[in-house]
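Good morning C.,

I know you're traveling, so I'll keep this short. The sequence:
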Amino acid sequence: MFERRNTMIIDTHVHIGQSLNFDMREEDVLYSLKKYNIDIAVVSNCQAASHDHDRKLLPESMQTSGIDCLKRSLKFARENEGKIYLQHWVKPMEEITSELKTLVEDNIDVIRGIKFHPYHSGVAFTDESCEKYVRLAAEYNLPVISHTGTEYDDNPKRLFEMAKKYPNTNFVMVHLGLGSDNKEAIELCKAQKNLYGDTTWVSIKSTLEFIDKCGSERIMFGSDSPIDGKDTYAFNFKGERSLYQEYFGEFKEMISKEDYENIMWRNACRLFSIKL
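The tokens, ready to paste straight into the viewer:
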């Protein structure tokens, strides 16, 4: 039986899109939000991935332009206003066009961040191709969100370096270094006040350590839903109880109500300028 709760939840790490072995559909997102009582989702479109799991460039026939990815995301947000907000998943090798800037300006009420995935973009986060989009985020006062892992390109150190260079822009270190023990990522967040974390595939133990070292105001709930299917909040891909059931259940009893609310929704409202 999955956990239910009466605390508001904003999931800051949700996807749509068909790319590689991912098949994440809008209807699955809406199903999961309703079934598991998630109030708001901040969504990015994984179809912007340009490289496969081995970091090989996808053929042109398997790629979707950043503009087309954003337009699909915008359609989803406009059909579900107040429920769906966006992070624009960028393709760093594409130039920033006047069309893109117009789309951002005209939809700034629902576009609440600029999203990077250095691993599936085949480029280091500190590369100029990414940095031009960081400058775009700074221009519109949007936070920068990036996947982090254990490769050079997506290492938490790369995000730390960029956060130091742009101290007036907020950065979210997604996964706190996926595949690691999260300790280095936590120390980097501690050292740089405009660096935030998220809970996507992060153990409760690591999140508690983050709270202890950085405070509950600097980490937000995220899940990658519906990456393991429309019931990602309940079960992982093996059919076992999901990590997120711990966040909805046991975790709530381990910390104060204020800390829990910070992580599950207050920080997201503040960072992404979501008005309830």
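Safe travels,
E.
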